[in-house]
What does this fold into?
Amino acid sequence: MGIKAKEIETIQSIVMAVSAGRVRAQFRKARSSKRYFDRIGAAWDGMQAEFFSDGVRDRAFRVAGVERGRTAVDLGAGTGFVTAGLVARGVTVIAVDQSRAMLDALRAKFPEVDAVDCRVGDAEQIPVDDASVSYCFANMCLHHVEHPSRAIGEMARILEPGGRLVVTDLDRHDHAFLLTEHHDRWMGFERGEVLQWLRDAGLESPSVESAGQQCCTAGPDGETVSIAIFVASGTKP
Ligand SMILES: C[S@@+](CC[C@H](N)C(=O)[O-])C[C@H]1O[C@@H](n2cnc3c(N)ncnc32)[C@H](O)[C@@H]1O
It folds into this structure.
């Protein structure tokens, strides 16, 4: 029995309504993460120090093989945890974040430093030219991004040949309160899926391994929650 034109029209309008609803839901989530970080601003400094230690960025810099005189993007730079470490190592930084408030707090830390360029922008559309930087770091940003694989593709796009991508983020976990309390989009990631995203982005020597560090915070009942951190890296051919 064939489907009548009227029935096809009804099915089409249902499909359109469902996908429009999905787009709206995604948009709402992205806005809520942006609002959250806009509200936190400079207060992130204190929170960040409780969540993770300098060991995370030290590990990221070792994996990247950071050298003085290079240029790096700090994606989802926040108040400048990674940026500060790079500036101390003689690296010029383009700090990219969706939140103007976070970047204002970052900028205030480096009032005289020309080596820091702040740009408001999205991880899925990084406001940086193709093949223009030696490193791209993203610490604790990816689990806030709607489409993490697209962000990794963008990180790869802006790297010059031989440039290094280094992502430090959370292993898959089951602490759902982080979705509401800290507006996380993802409950961490499986290392295998991250590895596949690095491959899909065309990076050489893709690797995802333990960073040997934990992200710690208080759970809903005041208990200490500890989540393992991975370090993912790859090289632009
Ligand atoms: C958990 S904070 C980490 C900040 C900093 N990287 C650090 O290590 O302290 C996440 C940061 O990523 C930014 N962010 C989240 N989603 C983003 C997106 N789609 N594009 C750009 N920045 C984003 C947030 O505004 C926030 O500043």
In short: The CA atoms of residues 18 and 24 lie 10 Å apart. The helical segments are 5-40, 44-51, 54-64, 81-88, 100-109, 148-158, 177-181, 191-200. Residues 5-235 form a domain with the Rossmann fold fold (CATH 3.40.50.150). Strands lie at 71-75, 92-97, 116-120, 133-139, 159-170, 204-218, 224-235.
